[in-house]
Amino acid sequence: MNKMASKRKWSIVSRLMTIENILYLLCGLCCLYQIKFIVIKYLSFDYITRIHSFVPDRTPLPDLVFCIRFIELINVTKFISNYPDLTRTLNVTNEHDYIHLIRSSPDRVTDLISSSLTIKQLTQLLYPKEQIINKITVIDRDSKSESDLCLIKSFYISISFCILTACSYRGQVSTNISMSDHHSAAIPFFMVEINNKYLDIGQSFGLTLVPPNTLPWEKDQRWLDLDTMSGPYTFTIIFTMFLQSLLPPPYQSQCHNYRDDGHVSQAEARNDCLNRHSLSELGVNFDSAVIADNLDQYFARKLLANNSQSKFVKLISRVADSCIQLTSKIDCSFISYPIQEYDKFYTGSNMTYIVLEQIREPVFTVSVEPQ
Q1: Mind giving me the DSSP string for 46-115?
Q2: What are the DSSP calls for 214-248, one per residue?
Q3: What is the homologous superfamily of the domain 54-73+126-246+332-370 according to CATH?
Q4: Which residues are bridge partners to 74 per DSSP?
């Protein structure tokens, strides 16, 4: 009897141990699966995209850029005096001849001047930017007029001479909007007065907004083509703001922080690449890039003057393809000031006014955060 009881007891213990082992095994397998799931999830660097819209209580002031064809800003008296051979080629003896010529054959004038003069020589022929801009007014509703904060910079984009008003170069200038102001009339807080004498020759000029301490490097930069015929006008610009913040690799957004390379943004890195490679390989700056106005170098039009159109396009395309490949990753941080619309009305004065209103529509932000 004792032996049978002992065998029965041992059989029960063995069964229990087997069940316990099975449970341990199952728990171990579940634990391993959970560890595997956590490791895979961690190594996949998942992220959450958050989109937020709001009407800001403060409107930051972007830098304003306007561009005019350089042939419209040339001091004709200085041009005739300094470059008689060129003016003889163009058959220009006075300002009336010159104005008539650039209205009838603008491409001929542009090609001859930009292929004959260096960038610095051309800039010295233009009317000073300080004469073109008569006055800048920035109204910070928290304090006082801040017009003394602004700098005026200039540069070229292709055949246009561009002027930038930078008022936040020492720190962000912004203006406050109270909640009641959201439902009241639009409030301008920035104004540029342009001497209409320098806009009379042409029929329009380009305008855009860029973040402080930058230039219009973006290929897809939105420009307004502002008509100056039958003017002068006051142009009231309505704009908003867009901010994007992504995560660099190994996160799947696959962006790149160009600031780590010493650049301001992807667009600035590409612009710098285009000019450096074009100068190194072709001896001229890239045709559609932003270039400084004080360089002892030639415009790309000089290269076009010495080559056929097809060869010129082939040379430029080779540089462009190389730089696009080197700067193909999107920027991790991006901010822009899209222009939504504008109004204009006749002023009847000798000035053209550009006015910025405070942001009154929702601003969008896109941010990526680790999950």
Answers
A1: -EEEEEEEE--SEEE-PEEEEEEEGGGSB-HHHHHHH-HHHHHHHT--SHHHHHHHHHH-HHHHHHHHHH
A2: --S--TT---EEEE-TT--EEEEEEE--EEEE---
A3: Acid-sensing ion channels like domains (2.60.470.10)
A4: 126
Amino acid at 337: Y
List Cβ neighbours of 350 (8 Å cut-off, separation of 6 or more). 195, 196, 197, 232
Angle between helices 266-282 and 309-326 (to 10 degrees): 140
Q: Is the pLDDT of residue 140 over 70?
A: no
Beta bridge partners of 344: 235
pLDDT at 89 over 80: yes
Angstrom distances, CA of residue 335 to CA of 148, 245, 264, 271: 26, 9, 11, 17
The DSSP line for 266-321 is HHHHHHHHHHHHHHHHHSS--TTSEEESS-SSB-THHHHHTS-HHHHHHHHHHHHH
Interval 255-277: pLDDT, tens: 889 999 999 999 999 999 999 99
What's the Rg (C-alpha) of the chain? 32
Buried b (16+ CB within 10 A) or exposed e, 43-76: eeeebeeeeeeeebeebbbbbbbbbbbbbbbbeb
Strand partners, 343: 236
For strand 133-138 and strand 188-195, is the pairing parallel, antiparallel, or unpaired?
A: antiparallel
Give the percent of the chain with pLDDT over 90.
43
**Short-list 75, 83, 217, CA closest to 132:** 75
**First-residue to last-residue Cα distance in the chain:** 66
Task: Tell me: pLDDT of 288 over 50.
Answer: yes
pLDDT at position 35 = 61
Listed in sequence order, the residues at least 6 apart from 198 whose beta carbon sits closer than 8 Å to its beta carbon are: 68, 72, 73, 127, 131, 132
Distance CA 240, CA 171 (A): 20
Token duo for residue 349: 């004065």
Sequence letter at residue 253? S
Residues 6+ apart with CB under 8 A from 45: 247, 250, 251, 252, 370
Do 72 and 201 form a contact (C-beta atoms < 8 A)?
A: yes
Q: What does the domain layout of the chain look like in residue ranges?
A: 1-43, 54-73+126-246+332-370, 74-125, 256-326
* Of residues 168, 113, 116, the one with CA closest to residue 138: 168
